Amino acid sequence: METNNFLKRDHFKLGTFSTNCSGGMTVSKLPNRWKADWESNLKLAKMMDVAGMDFMLPIARWIGYGGETDFHGYVLETVTWATALLANTQNMTIFATVQTACNHPVVVAKQIATMAQISNERVGLNIVAGWNKPEYDALGQNLADDHETRYGYAQEWYDIIKRIWTEDQPFNFDGKYFKTTRTYGNPKPKTMPPIYNAAGSGLGREFAARNADFLFTPAIDLERSKEELKELKQQALDQAGRKVGVLTFSHVICRPTEAEAKEVWQSLQDNADWAAVDNLIRLQFAHAHSFPHDLMNLIRERFAAGHGGFPLVGTPEQVADGITQLHETGFGGTTLSFFDYAEEFPYFRDNVLPILEARGIRKKFA
After folding, report:
1. Is the CB of residue 22 less than 8 Å from the CB of residue 210?
2. Which of 9, 49, 111, 222 shows its CA 20 to 30 Å from the CA of 278?
3. CA-CA distance, 304 to 73, in Å (whole number)?
4. Distance between CA atoms of 192 and 185, rounded to whole angstroms?
């Protein structure tokens, strides 16, 4: 298969994260928080598509995190969400986030192939091996406690999908977790869809090194991130002979003055749903290895405002400086979240993107 256009576009990638979930990435009790309804998502997607943004990435959730707001309790399902947005855009890649444990690989292969045809190959797949045990309890499924089982299952799951996409003849699959007979799929994608994966454990990062085009990791301390990124990229080369990019996620509060931006940040702290924040952190630290445990106080503050994302808070120049720092650290891109995506994105588009283009970090959309 030829290289997907998303991977050919060689600049610092920018997209949004979690617009399909109530609150987005902000765990807030403020009444005007992001609603995540279809009309809001469609409005945002059309603006992003024209502005030359690279992607939209959803979160797959089945239950919320409790608290007063039940953060992420309202969620648009990711495959149907992505399909509808792909049918209403022209340029941007839109990812479906899929949990391996509750989605059969033969079905997912067919869904993504269909979405590729609808969108002229603009669909991506974000693979989640599973970590949030209460979600699987709500589904009546047993989530394996050990990463070896989760990622062993995920590897067979994705192996089946790749074979469906790339092999012309029916095949039998005889694995530990899947046994299939005369498996095949038509239509197939014309280009291999870009693959995202977020993993913090050793086994998870081995999975990403073998399979992902981009691995997600948080940017908490950029000096620490420089070494981490070097290690991750070298690991992919050593273990799989592959080049794997690394993305992170950020939260944007961009205003004409630094004082205004900091005032908004403080308002998010003052109006955070702390019960939901603490429940989210507890689950992350119990079942996932994405965040460094020694930076808990800093992480808690950032979880309230942006689900732990790197803060881009200040004037357009300051926000552009923060993105430049991420680029210089070695990240290949970042997701962006806003308190109200559709309301705040136009200011970011008009005032930050031109700075990034002038610095050569972004290529002007054509």
Report:
1. no
2. 222
3. 16
4. 14
C-alpha dihedral, 84 to 86 to 88 to 89, nearest 10° = 160
State the DSSP string of 306-365: HTTPEEEEESHHHHHHHHHHHHHHT-SEEEEE-SSHHHHHHHHHHHTHHHHHHTTSSPPP
Structure confidence by residue, pLDDT tens digits, 286-315 = 555 445 545 556 677 777 777 778 999 999
DSSP H helical segments within 67-219, as ranges?
Answer: 78-87, 105-119, 133-138, 147-166, 202-211
pTM equals: 0.93
> Residues 189-217, buried b or exposed e (16+ Cβ, 10 A)?
bebbbbbbbbbbbebbbbbbbbbbbbbbb
Domains assigned to the chain: 5-358 (3.20.20.30)
Strands 171-174 and 179-183: antiparallel
